[in-house]
């Protein structure tokens, strides 16, 4: 089945897992919570769910909770799908009205039929625990949570995405597509991509505009890609001369994360910078309960 956006391209297990789950849930009308960093394509997955649902001929409306001031705006999505981005930023005074809409299908005493898909960064549960977000609303929206992997977690997809973004930008700007030297490819591979797919797309466009038809060398790359990030330096691991048992080490790290997170698997996954699905897969791999 064809995807409806270039950022939906990918072959990594982490990416295919969330796409498969999105297609499964599209056939239903339940609320979906997309959990992942900004720039990972959360809205594109929401649009994919809508396009495969029974509501596909009705409106798809995307709203940022940071800018949402009045729930009356939600009426524009009647009959269709409402995508609420950055759910953690929803004002407390609006949360009770949204809960009523989810539970009763009513907004200020009037019927309103729509499907809600929301997105949030992984720290929403922390806000719930601090009393900054209603617990009952969180669990009402969290019927089907989908973990959207960061670009770091699906690094194998970077060459595919970059190729497509370069081709798209070259066509858009009427320029020849550049190529990348081995050294430049190594920098791309080692970069942590904190801005995720959005950062990769912007990088591709910059290279097309500044170096059309050329072979890009390491010295042509952005400064932030030519020097190791502080995070990468802090995480540098020195292999002892005697070697290690990698499987034993990974299993031990997983157990430590669980203990540190008090048994909360979502928190433990965040400690290791993994999606919840990837973390659960690794627990299963080592038979850790």
Structure in a nutshell:
The protein has 289 residues and is α/β, with parallel strands linked by helices. It has helices spanning 13-26, 42-51, 92-104, 124-129, 135-141, 158-173, 182-190, 196-210, 223-226, 230-234, 246-260, 265-271, 276-285, and strands spanning 32-35, 60-64, 81-85, 106-107, 110-111, 115-120, 144-147, 179-180, 215-216.
Structure characterization notes:
It is a single chain. Helix 3 crosses helix 5 (135-141) and helix 12 (265-271) crosses helix 13. The protein has helices at residues 13-26, 42-51, 92-104, 124-129, 135-141, 158-173, 182-190, 196-210, 223-226, 230-234, 246-260, 265-271, 276-285, and strands at 32-35, 60-64, 81-85, 106-107, 110-111, 115-120, 144-147, 179-180, 215-216. With 289 residues, the protein is of the alpha/beta class. Strand 4 and strand 5 form a beta hairpin. The chain is globular, with a radius of gyration of 21 Å. The chain has 13 helices and 9 strands. It is 45% helix and 11% strand. Strands 2-3-6-1-7 form a 5-stranded parallel sheet, covered by helices on one side. A two-stranded antiparallel sheet has the order 4-5. A two-stranded parallel sheet has the order 8-9. The protein has 3 domains: 6-147, P-loop containing nucleotide triphosphate hydrolases (Rossmann fold, 3-Layer(aba) Sandwich), CATH 3.40.50; 156-230, Helicase, Ruva Protein, domain 3 (Orthogonal Bundle), CATH 1.10.8.60; 246-285, Arc Repressor Mutant, subunit A.
């Amino acid at each position: 089945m064809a995807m409806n956006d270039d950022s939906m391209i990918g072959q990594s297990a982490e990416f295919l897992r969330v796409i498969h789950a999105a297609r499964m849930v599209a056939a239903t009308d339940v609320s979906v919570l997309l959990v992942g960093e900004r720039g990972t394509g959360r809205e594109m997955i929401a649009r994919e769910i809508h396009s495969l649902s029974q509501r596909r001929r009705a409106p798809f409306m995307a709203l940022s909770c940071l800018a949402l001031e009045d729930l009356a705006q939600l009426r524009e999505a009647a009959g269709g799908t409402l995508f609420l981005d950055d759910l953690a930023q929803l004002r407390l005074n609006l949360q009770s009205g949204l809960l009523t809409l989810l539970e009763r299908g009513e907004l200020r005493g009037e019927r309103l039929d729509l499907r809600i898909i929301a997105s949030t960064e992984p720290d929403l549960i922390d806000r719930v625990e601090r009393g900054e977000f209603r617990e009952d609303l969180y669990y009402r929206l969290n019927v089907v949570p989908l973990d959207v992997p960061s670009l770091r977690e699906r690094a194998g997809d970077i060459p595919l995405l970059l190729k497509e973004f370069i081709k798209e930008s070259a066509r858009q700007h009427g320029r020849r597509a550049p190529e990348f030297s081995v050294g430049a490819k190594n920098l791309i591979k080692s970069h942590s991509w904190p801005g995720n797919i959005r950062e990769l797309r912007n990088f591709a466009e910059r290279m097309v505009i500044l170096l059309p038809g050329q072979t890009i060398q390491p010295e042509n790359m952005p400064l932030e890609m030519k020097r190791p990030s502080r995070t990468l330096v802090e995480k540098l691991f020195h292999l002892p001369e005697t070697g290690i048992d990698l499987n034993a080490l990974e299993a031990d790290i997983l157990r430590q994360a669980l203990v540190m997170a008090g048994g909360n698997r979502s928190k433990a996954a965040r400690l290791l910078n993994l999606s919840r699905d990837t973390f659960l897969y690794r627990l299963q791999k080592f038979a850790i309960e």
